[in-house]
Design a protein that fits this description.
The complex is a heterodimer of chains A (about 250) and B (about 350). Chain A is α/β, with parallel strands linked by helices. Chain A contains 9 helices and 12 strands. Classes of the chains: A alpha/beta (about 250), B mainly alpha (about 350). Chains A and B meet through helix 2 and strand 6 of A and helix 10 and helix 11 of B.
Chain lengths: ~250, ~350
């Protein structure tokens, strides 16, 4: 269980995120949604322990994460940045770096490490790409490689910053299914998402952010009804009771 | 398991071939020159059993010079590779981002102020290299660290430091003899005394670089990823840049401002290995040593008994080769093709 308590965070002297209280349970998938610049990535990075909060705390199963050593935290939390990592390096080499938190000097891979790397490649179905250069892959393949690196890191809590941006619809759905299956296996998956449709379809809980504050934290069905989507995005959300699907339409202001 | 076995024999093969290249270049460098020496004479001279002219040439001229080119080549190449990975910029190299100029400025300053303390020079060079690399790093970070900003910052810092070298030589023309050849770069007249204590710094630096190679790989994935993998990115970056500065500084202290080695060799090494730094860095060291030694052989023998300064040869061989490398990747943007 991850608990954010009265969390304020930001860059330099600018407080971007104000007074956030959230709790994430194991075995569930959560989405953080909100307009560009509302602070969702900042919140995610701070929750993942990559930025120091200005005030408030983040606790993982009762332990404040500021009391956990970075290497140890990296065995509990993994984080997928919005962009980066890719270039003149083979797929296997990049995925292998997921084992870094488990490598003491002189940084030699154990049999256990190699097994984790192989299984991560297999889970994402990219074993046959293992010896290719990351830079030569398509966007969807690259994203899979980056996610395989997180799988090799083998953490209970997984933070993903916009994992589906720039991917075509097939790759998006495939990744979301993968994340859901991770949650079903007892991991906690927390991601920021642009795509409301995906967020409502796949999440167990949705945090809606507006101007650096969380204005609603509830399961999708409730989020659609409580008016937070209208307030944050200016669109209304409703659920079709027959199919269980969510629809979004622009609000008329009259 | 099978796959990793295959890759480890490949690693061993690459290292063995690079080592042979280096060893061959070293033997050639000792034997060739204005006065050719046969391998037989080389062995007897090394065994200390002859006191002929050839033996004296070997011991006092060829051996220190070859040791110097091997050390400088390895140090500059590894420094270049580290700087390229840490700054995430394939154009960065010790001479382009002003690290050599920093080391040179401090060396010249040291010679001007303390002409008799030659042992101070490598340390002064190290400080200068470190100051330059840190200055470039912080400028680039403040302004957003785009690739081109970083190169521009480096050129600016480098120009300033070169102006510093020129200022000292203009105002104290007699204090720094041989400044022209120092600025071109070369090892004419190097002795074992001049290589000390720089050789210790270089060997320690190479060892440190190889020990940190996996950390260098992870750091080059970007700060956020490095941090999320539990790395103290700031500390690791500082350690790596310090290592690069020590290597480049020590090399410049006795070899002068030799350019391009730190740009060409790392690119070739990365092409050959196509993998992480735990292999690429040793390959850089071996090939860098071989490359500079071969350049030095050319410098000594092309118009023997007259010598061309090594720095000129490096530029004449290195730059066309580098342009060839760039042109060979037709079409693709940098890093697009495998």
């Amino acid at each position: 269980m991850i608990v954010l308590d009265k969390l304020c965070c930001g860059y330099g002297r600018d407080t971007v995120v104000h007074d956030v209280n959230l709790s994430f349970e194991a075995g569930k998938l959560y989405s953080i949604i909100g307009k560009n610049g509302c602070g969702k990535s900042t919140l995610l990075m701070t929750a993942a322990g990559l930025m120091k909060p200005f005030s408030g705390s983040i606790t993982a199963d009762g332990t404040d994460i500021s009391a956990i050593k970075p290497k140890e935290l990296a065995r509990k939390f993994s984080f997928l940045p919005q962009s980066g990592a890719g270039g003149d390096i083979t797929v296997r080499a990049l995925v292998s770096h997921g084992r870094f938190p488990y490598l003491p000097y002189p940084r030699r891979y154990s049999a256990e490490d190699l097994r984790c790397i192989d299984s991560a490649l297999e889970t994402l179905g990219i074993t046959e790409l293992a010896d290719r250069k990351v830079s030569g892959l398509s966007g969807g393949q690259k994203q899979k490689v980056r996610i395989a690196m997180l799988f090799a890191q083998d953490t209970d809590v997984i933070f993903l910053d916009e994992p589906t941006t720039y991917l075509d619809i097939g790759a998006r759905l495939e990744l979301m299914e993968l994340f859901s299956s991770l949650a079903a296996k007892g991991r906690t998956v927390i991601m920021t998402l642009h795509d409301l449709d995906l967020a409502f379809r796949c999440s167990d809980g949705i945090a809606v952010m507006k101007n650096g504050s969380v204005i609603s934290f509830a399961p999708p069905g409730e989020t659609a009804k409580n008016g937070s989507v209208e307030s944050a995005f200016g669109v209304s959300a409703f659920r079709d009771e027959h199919s269980g699907q969510y629809f979004f339409t622009s609000c008329s202001k009259d | 398991m099978k796959c990793s076995m295959r890759s480890s024999t490949r690693t061993a093969k690459i290292l063995a071939i690079c080592f042979l290249c280096m060893a061959a270049s070293a033997v050639l460098a000792v034997c060739l020159g204005a006065v050719p020496v046969s391998p037989g004479e080389l062995i007897s001279a090394l065994a200390g059993s002859s006191d002929t002219a050839a033996a004296r040439i070997l011991l006092h001229v060829r051996l220190p010079r070859t040791a110097g080119t091997l050390l400088a080549g390895a140090a500059l190449s590894v420094a270049g590779r580290i700087i390229q990975c840490v700054l995430g910029n394939p154009l960065a190299s010790p001479n382009i981002i002003g690290v050599n100029a920093g080391a040179g400025f401090f060396t010249v300053l040291c010679i001007a102020l303390f002409p008799y303390d030659t042992a101070l020079q490598p340390f002064a060079a190290f400080l200068g290299a470190l100051a330059a690399v840190m200055a470039v790093y912080f400028i680039a970070r403040k302004t957003g660290a785009s690739r081109i900003t970083l190169v521009l910052a480096g050129i600016a810092v480098g120009s300033l430091l070169n102006a510093g070298i020129d200022t000292i030589t203009v105002f104290m023309p007699n204090s720094v003899p041989g400044i022209t050849s120092y600025k071109i770069g070369g090892l004419a007249g190097v002795t074992f005394g001049k290589l000390s204590p720089a050789w210790i710094i270089i060997l320690v630096g190479l060892l440190a670089a190889i020990l940190l190679s996996r950390d260098l790989d992870v750091l080059s994935l970007g700060d956020t990823t490095a941090k999320s993998l539990g790395m103290n990115a700031e500390l690791t970056r500082f350690l790596l840049l310090t290592t690069a500065a020590a290597l480049a500084g020590a090399a410049v202290s006795f070899a002068g401002l030799i350019g391009f080695v730190g740009l060409i060799v790392p690119h070739c090494a990365a092409k050959i290995t196509g993998s992480g730094n735990s292999l690429t860095l040793p390959v850089c060291a071996l090939l860098g040593a071989a490359f500079l030694t071969v350049c030095d052989i050319v410098a000594r023998t092309l118009f023997a008994p007259f010598e061309i300064p090594l720095g000129i040869i490096v530029s004449y061989i290195g730059v066309p080769f580098f342009i060839y490398l760039v042109l060979r990747k037709k079409g693709g943007r940098h890093g697009d093709r495998t």
